[in-house]
């Protein structure tokens, strides 16, 4: 089962089905996708069964059911996507329960390093890199999630190395979302310890590394040119910095969302599945495609993760950092029901919270029994 677990983690956390589709062919990519789901089903079949993830099962059930009412694409595509997602949630949650933070850190680190591999060996004329994740913003999320996970380790060397690696890989995506969330996470880290301000001290080293990479492979990225201009105290156009903002993208969908707020506009209408532009916002995508009920369920789910990760902040401060990364990332991405690694890491946070609650309840019960005895 250990080998099967590692193989599934590689397929999910390294986004191998999408890489195969992009690098080889659609048929081979589809085969890898079904292989992932098939192995998850096999894993669930032979693994010991525990309590399922009712949060996401109910959320997905409402989303897929209501959005199907106005779906006008190929029926078989919708049916297969729905079945695959439920197999993923049911089998994936059993897998999540058996993945510790060290294992997750290794897979996240190797996944993030794929960004550097692309930058050095497959330089792009666009100057933005994503490695295994194809989309720079999604690669940036992996780096943010791994960056938050670094704070779960006590070893100072591992922390420093992880901070440097995930920050540098994230910067190579040249994602504005990454930079904003990275700043927020570092502000939260100061609550853990003021010593964490040292990450700002290696900022010069990070920038020097980017300059080296730029000289070596030629990043050819307008955002990096803007950054260099800022450092050199040169004028930078605010219109260039704010070009192609997410808020501008969202605004194109407000009328469609308000047109049908209760049952949405149907599966695929805001996620780009039917050939249209995607909304790049999971919250807007859910309410726009399936209406207010699954939207509220998603809000409650994220609220649940936020509340309990704050509650256990002293013991597991990295959980609120991971939750913040997830919640803010979903503001810029609409692939929660498509890219399994996003839902996978959400379920990992959820299970870590469940474990903390269980330990807290056991400790509370033992304390009450001890008090009665004495």
Order of helices and strands: HHHHHHHHHHHHHHHHHHH
What does the largest sheet look like?
none
**Mean of residue pLDDT values:** 88
Q: What's the end-to-end separation, in Å?
A: 46 Å
Radius of gyration (CA) equals: 21 Å
How does the overall form come out from the CA principal axes?
globular
Amount of helix: over 70%
Q: How many helices in DSSP terms?
A: 19
Q: Which consecutive residue ranges, at least 5 long each, have pLDDT under 50? A: none
Number of E-type strands: 0
Number of individual domains:
2
Helix-strand category: mainly alpha
Question: In percent, how much strand structure appears in the residues?
Answer: under 5%
Describe the structure.
The protein is mainly α and 374 residues long. It folds into two domains: 50-98 and 248-374, no CATH class; 110-244, no CATH class. The chain contains 19 helices and no strands. Helix 2 (16-23) runs antiparallel to helix 3 (26-46), helix 4 runs antiparallel to helix 5 and helix 6 crosses helix 8 (156-172). The termini are far apart. The model has no long low-confidence stretch (mean pLDDT 88).
Task: Give the tags.
mainly alpha, 374 residues, 2 domains, single chain, 19 helices
Can you lay out the helices and strands and say which pair or pack?
Layout: H1 2-13, H2 16-23, H3 26-46, H4 54-67, H5 75-96, H6 101-121, H7 136-150, H8 156-172, H9 176-192, H10 198-201, H11 203-217, H12 222-231, H13 238-241, H14 246-251, H15 254-259, H16 282-290, H17 292-311, H18 317-329, H19 340-373
């Amino acid at each position: 089962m250990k080998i099967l677990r590692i193989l599934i983690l590689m397929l999910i956390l390294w986004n191998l089905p999408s890489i195969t589709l992009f690098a080889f062919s659609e048929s081979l990519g589809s085969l890898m996708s079904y292989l992932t789901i098939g192995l998850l089903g096999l894993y669930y079949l032979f693994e010991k069964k525990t309590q399922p993830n009712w949060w996401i099962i109910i959320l997905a059930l409402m989303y897929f059911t209501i959005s199907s009412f106005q779906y006008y694409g190929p029926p078989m595509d919708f049916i297969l996507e729905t079945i695959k997602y439920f197999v993923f949630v049911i089998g994936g949650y059993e897998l999540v329960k058996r993945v510790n933070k060290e294992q997750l850190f290794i897979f996240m680190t190797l996944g993030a390093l794929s960004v550097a591999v692309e930058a050095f060996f497959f330089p792009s004329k666009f100057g933005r890199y994503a490695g295994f994740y194809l989309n720079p913003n999604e690669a940036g999320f992996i780096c943010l999630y791994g960056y938050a996970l670094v704070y779960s380790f006590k070893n100072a060397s591992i922390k420093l190395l992880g901070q440097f690696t995930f920050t540098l890989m994230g910067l190579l995506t040249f994602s504005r979302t990454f930079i904003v969330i990275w700043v927020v996470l570092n502000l939260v880290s100061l609550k853990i310890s003021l010593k964490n301000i040292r990450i700002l001290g290696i900022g010069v080293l990070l920038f020097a590394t980017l300059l080296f990479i730029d000289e070596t492979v030629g990043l050819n990225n307008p955002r990096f040119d803007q950054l260099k201009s800022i450092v050199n105290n040169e004028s930078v156009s605010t219109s260039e910095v704010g070009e192609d903002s997410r808020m501008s993208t969202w605004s194109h969908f407000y009328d469609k969302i308000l047109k049908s707020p209760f049952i949405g506009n149907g599966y695929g209408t805001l996620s780009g599945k039917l050939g249209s532009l995607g909304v790049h916002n999971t919250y807007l995508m859910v309410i726009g495609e399936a209406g207010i009920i699954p939207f509220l369920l998603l809000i409650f789910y994220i609220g649940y993760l936020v509340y309990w990760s704050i509650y256990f902040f002293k013991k597991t401060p990295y959980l609120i950092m991971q939750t913040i990364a997830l919640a803010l990332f979903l503001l810029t991405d609409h692939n929660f029901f498509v890219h399994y690694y996003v839902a996978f890491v959400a379920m990992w946070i959820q299970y870590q919270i469940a474990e903390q609650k269980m330990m807290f309840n056991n400790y509370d019960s033992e304390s009450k029994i001890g008090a009665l005895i004495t």
